[in-house]
């Protein structure tokens, strides 16, 4: 009989690091990650076969962000943000040429001591396609979609960033670091 020392991944609170900014669990609704590899089909006299390739077709994450203020969108879309000298600022879409911000993204279960269950996008951009929800019963929110971009490391890593020792993702440096002890 096969045995395992695997722990069960339980439901819980998650945090999302966009670059060096940590979005706490208190601002996040559900997070959904989608990864799909391209497939190729071949019609033969024996029938149609379909097989997976090693090419990523889709690598994205979507989450609901509950906004503490509209100004907070400037942290999500820094390339569209202008800070005011009087406090706050504005996010303006269109009207100027911008370089789309790309950053590493790491999703980590709050309180977990290591990164063994992290979802990590090596480089991602934030899709500008959202609806701002302003209702009488809920806090203002937007649904944010992150699109993973190709890197020499791939698109997405599920699990630890260091296969030789226990590690955790450091938001400030945007890198994996060893866990002390």
Walk me through this protein's architecture:
It is a single chain. With 181 residues, the protein is mostly beta strands. It has 1 helix and 12 strands. The chain has one helix spanning 73-76; strands spanning 14-18, 21-23, 28-44, 47-66, 81-83, 89-91, 102-109, 119-127, 141-148, 156-158, 167-170, 175-178. Strands 1, 2, 3, 4, 7, 8, 9 and 10 form an 8-stranded antiparallel β-sheet that branches. It has a two-stranded antiparallel ribbon with strand order 5-6. Strand 11 (167-170) and strand 12 (175-178) form a beta hairpin. The longest helix is centred in the middle third of the chain and has 4 residues, at 73-76. It is globular, with a radius of gyration of 20 Å. The model has no long low-confidence stretch (mean pLDDT 88).
How is the secondary structure organized here?
Elements: E1 14-18, E2 21-23, E3 28-44, E4 47-66, H1 73-76, E5 81-83, E6 89-91, E7 102-109, E8 119-127, E9 141-148, E10 156-158, E11 167-170, E12 175-178
Antiparallel strand pairs: 1-2, 1-7, 3-4, 4-9, 5-6, 7-8, 8-9, 8-10, 11-12
